Amino acid sequence: MHDHSIRPALAALALAAMLPGCGGSGTTATATTHLAVATGAKLTSCTDLAAKAAFAGTTITSATLAPAGSVTQTLNGVATPMPEHCVVLGKMNERTGVDGRPYAIGFEMRLPRDWNGRFFYQANGGNDGSISGGNAAFGNLLGGGPVSNALLQGYAVISSDAGHVPDATANGAIAGQVYGLDPQARLDYGYNAVGQLTPMAKNVIRAAYGKGPDRSYIVGCSNGGRHGLVAASRYGDQYDGVLAGAPGYNLPQAAVTQMWDAQAFAAAAPAGANGRPNIGAGYSDADLRLVAGKILERCDKLDGLADGMVSDTAQCQAAFSLARDVPTCAGAPDGACLTATQKAALQKVYDGPKNSAGNALYARWSWDPGIAGPGWRSWKLGTATSPGLTATLGAPSMAFIFSTPPADPAVLTGTGTSLLDYALNFNFDANAAKIFATTDRFTESSMSFMTPPNPGRLDTLRARGGKVLVFHGVSDPVFSFDDTVKWLNALKANYSDTGAFARVFSVPGMNHCSGGPATDQFDMMSALVDWVEKGIEPEAIRATARTASANPGLGTIPAGRTRPLCSWPKVATYAGGNVDDAASFTCR
Predict the structure, then answer these.
(1) Same domain, yes or no: 56 and 153
(2) Which residues form the domain of 81?
(3) Which of 40, 161, 266, 286 could form a disulfide bond with 335, CB atoms 3.0-4.6 angstroms apart?
(4) Is residue 5 scored above 90 in pLDDT?
């Protein structure tokens, strides 16, 4: 699964010069093609945009000017005042769905007084469904604890609900997922909202500034990363740069995997008070730390330094064996061993889901010490008193959004049923096949509307000089890092110059989008803009370890440590010097 090779080291002087720069977007070479640098403009219209920015199927419900300092966003724990900007609210394509519910593609735009000439599509995570709170259109920059946002940097930003809002009448945990009963809502969520909103937003920008954007970027993590890779494939003529974190581009398959995980872990779980497996009680924190420690024993020094981090992910997969390296308990687990049942369940999870014929239904997972991070537990296992998100979030998404036809809501709300029951009864032949199925009403399968049409081809974006920058935590418990490597390898099979327009950066130890024993604070956006507009190829991006209070999964990694994140398959390798300084490492 891994595409790993040892390449010659970069010159130490070039790397040292690159890493200390602000944001760490540095360079070692110039791309053969790049686009011109964007030029800015001043906001000339705001409160009159409802009339000036008319667009088919669109209603601008409000356009108001927010004075400087009147709006704040909390960045890295600090309430940060925003500059003067125009806030535009609206909706597109209002309709009544086949399920009788009202639908529209809701959006918010924030347009700064001093514009840098760039459009920023903020692609949101999860099931979308909101343009408030963390999804407000500030232009969220990715990486742990960002200290800025796109609005502060002068971008014109849009955020959307992707065509649906949570249904207040839905029952408990399935609120927000029942839009999957409407075929068009599925398509809007998968790709159509981005396709509809992009030209509309550029029209608003043109009316507000007297010119359209010179450069357009789509940025997001998790489902937002998936939006990015889908846009790179479907809308390569509309976007110059894509920043995709932890991109679940095969999200329906990842949802099948969550059902697989629930069943595998149930085999190692004690029964709860309700008689069902208490998955969160199947492994203690000490159990997970044991596995992480054994991974470190085998893999920590592969990059030339024992530092509590595993940078050489590919070699680690061959070096570590759960069966061999983790002791098997003769009795109860005590933090120094795992039972044979625990080891079998964990190995089954890491091997990935399979049907009865033994065919893989998703990618496998990479062993990494981030398994001990709280983000890994919260998704995969939960705690003894709080179930993991694998079943509670994955089950309704699987049932209503990704299965064709969708399940009857009674499956998850009827007497005697639960989200966990759905996961435990999931059939990996009949039920898993539903992600590829269609009906007369649901004419696109979830593997059609949720994924890039041809992930291995980006002809349009590549031809016009666009770039795709992807980062992914090796210990992401939601979307497999191995699946992202598979995406990159598919591009490499089609294009000999893949590195000139698409790159993947692994983040050792990191869980889903942030957190874990990792240097998880970094600025990928500056690197992307420099690549798109100046031709500066990103080889290494400086990353910093946050404090333990900001990142509870930091473990033994010292706060303030810096490391280069390397363009896959290169590895951050110790070259000598301060072990906590990125300048002491080269990407090989």
Answers:
(1) yes
(2) 39-213
(3) 286
(4) no
Q: Is the dihedral of CA 176, 477, 373, 547 positive or negative?
A: negative
Assess contact for 117 and 215: CB atoms under 8 A. yes
Cβ atoms within 10 A of the Cβ of 268, count? 25
Six-digit token string for 535: 């031709």
For residues 382 and 284, what is the distance between their CA atoms, to the nearest angstrom? Answer: 10
Residues 59 and 181 in one domain: yes
Q: Is the residue at 355 inside a domain? A: yes
The set of long-range contacts for 436-442, using a CB threshold of 8 Å and a minimum separation of 24, is 437/403, 437/404, 437/405, 438/404, 439/404, 439/405, 441/98, 441/183, 441/405, 442/183, 442/186, 442/404, 442/405, 442/406
- Same-domain status, 129 and 259: no
375 pLDDT higher than 60: yes
The pLDDT-based confidence of 587 (bands split at 50, 70, 90) is very high
Same domain, residue pair 128 and 188: yes
Rg (CA), the chain: 23
What is d(CA 290, CA 286) in angstroms, rounded to the nearest whole number? Answer: 6
DSSP E strands in 97-210: the ranges are 102-112, 114-115, 118-122, 156-160
Whole-number Å distance between alpha carbons of 587 and 574: 9
Residues 341, 344, 345, 350, Cα dihedral to 10°: 160
Tens-digit pLDDT profile for residues 154-177: 999 999 999 999 765 444 545 567
Backbone torsion region of residue 552, taken as left when φ is above 0, otherwise alpha when ψ lies between -120 and 50, otherwise beta? alpha
For residues 128 and 160, is the Cβ–Cβ distance under 8 A?
Answer: yes
Cα 523 from Cα 450, distance rounded (Å): 27
pTM above 0.85, yes or no: yes
Specify the number of domains making up the chain.
2
Q: What's the rounded Cα separation, in Å, for the pair 99 and 201?
A: 29
Query: Any idea which residues carry the catalytic annotation?
Result: 222, 476, 512
Long-range contact set of residues 361-364: C-beta below 8 Å, sequence gap at least 24: 361/253, 361/256, 361/257, 361/260, 361/428, 361/432, 362/250, 362/253, 362/254, 362/256, 362/257, 362/260, 362/480, 362/483, 363/1, 363/250, 363/480, 363/482, 363/483, 363/486, 364/1, 364/480, 364/482
pLDDT tens-digit series, residues 32-52: 478 999 999 999 999 999 999
Is the Cβ–Cβ distance between 246 and 513 less than 8 Å?
Answer: yes
The verdict on residue 354 lying in a domain is yes
- DSSP notation for 276-303: SB-GGGSS-HHHHHHHHHHHHHHHGGGG
- Token look-up 């970094």 returns 522
Do 83 and 207 lie in one domain? The reply is yes
Q: Would you state the structure tokens that stand for residue 90, as one six-digit string?
A: 């609206």
Distance in angstroms (rounded) separating the CA atoms of residues 173 and 395: 10
Integer CA distances (angstroms), 50 to 64, 91, 161, 203, 268, in order: 10, 12, 20, 12, 58
Per the CB < 8 A criterion, the answer to whether 15 and 583 are in contact is yes
Q: Are residues 258 and 360 in the same domain?
A: yes
